Amino acid sequence: MSNVVELRNVVKTYDLGGAIKVDALRGINLNVERGEFMSIMGPSGCGKSTLLNIIGGLDSPTSGQVIIDGIDITHMSERDLAHIRREKIGFVFQFFNLVPLLTALENVQIPMIFAGRYSNAEIKERAIELLRLVGLEHRLHHRPNQMSGGEQQRVAIARALANEPSIILADEPTGNVDRETGLKIIHLMKNLNETLGQTFIIVTHDPDIAHISKRIIYMLDGQVIPEPPRLTMNPSSSILAEERRKMLLSELKWLEVSIKNLEAKKMKLNKESYLQAKLGYKKRLEMLKKALQEEYKGRR
Ligand SMILES: Nc1ncnc2c1ncn2[C@@H]1O[C@H](COP(=O)(O)OP(=O)(O)OP(=O)(O)O)[C@@H](O)[C@H]1O
Ligand SMILES: [Mg+2]
């Protein structure tokens, strides 16, 4: 299967002047296959948004290589990058980022107007169709402040799909809606992935998103790590309690997904390695559950 995203040794260093530098990404290697539904987890500040912005051509790496849909975008001019973003990428942000003075219908039309690919009549028809797809045919003429958070996020998803991008990038898409609305948004994205075949890369702290993802990658301190850090073995007092709980919970989800994937692969593995992997995961799961119980006891 072909890769829709290829990152090779991507480094991003922010230079804040003086001698202050922040290493936001420290050599990321990552391949994402067409049609994947993948989530990225990791503690605050580990570089998730930076990574997403670089994949989406909103930011460029300090060094390394970024290949999107077979095109090397690493050294592209801003003008060419804008073209790539318009043609290949759909963004969904935590705070929706809709244009406040425009209606839902107009917000979804904007990217198509800029792309100049469709006639005016087609643009309107497509926008209505997309809003119907996200269940908002009754909100076409509402402005963002006349809609709920969940409705605004669904408009944002419709907008992201407007130019039939190969990749949808979402940065904490359920970060600002209640849990029930979050679940609806997650299922909508998953359905779109299954029916339209678009690739979804989702940065999230939300265990429900991680749960339905086929693949979770975990980041720590600017790097992709093969599995979440083992906090239960190496408790570090420098990590805030809340952050620690979040990390334990995401590891729990990571393990659940790994176990599911292992079961799916069962037939292809020899019996011994299957059993060994399963035992390893199970042990880890038990330790983790204990650690979480301790954490929550400590909180009370
Ligand atoms: N424009 C910038 N200038 C300087 N430093 C930055 C800039 N953007 C991000 N950083 C730093 O780079 C690191 C990674 O930031 P990033 O926003 O990618 O983290 P994150 O994993 O998305 O965190 P969160 O979960 O809180 O959103 C952080 O240390 C951050 O302070
Ligand atoms: Mg972020």
Bound molecules: adenosine-5'-triphosphate, magnesium ion
| Assigned CATH class of the largest domain | Alpha Beta
Low-confidence stretches: none
Annotated CATH architecture of the largest domain: 3-Layer(aba) Sandwich
Rounded average pLDDT: 88
CATH superfamily of the largest domain: P-loop containing nucleotide triphosphate hydrolases
Strand order of the largest sheet: 6-7-8-3-9-10
* Approximate helicity band: 40-55%
Q: What's the Cα radius of gyration? A: 21 Å
Strand tally is 10
Give the terminus-to-terminus CA distance: 49 Å
Folded structure, characterized:
By secondary structure, this protein is an alpha/beta fold. The protein contains nine helices and ten strands. The protein is globular. The chain binds adenosine-5'-triphosphate and magnesium ion (MG). Magnesium ion is lined by residues 48-49, 171.
Question: What structural keywords apply?
Answer:
single chain; 300 residues; alpha/beta; Rossmann fold; six-stranded mixed beta sheet; four-stranded antiparallel beta sheet; globular; binds adenosine-5'-triphosphate; binds magnesium ion
How are the SSEs ordered, and which strands pair?
Layout: E1 3-15, E2 21-33, E3 37-41, H1 48-55, E4 63-68, E5 71-72, H2 78-88, E6 89-92, H3 104-115, H4 120-133, H5 149-161, E7 167-171, H6 179-196, E8 199-203, H7 207-212, E9 215-220, E10 223-225, H8 241-265, H9 271-299
Parallel strand pairs: 3-8, 3-9, 6-7, 7-8
Antiparallel strand pairs: 1-2, 1-4, 4-5, 9-10
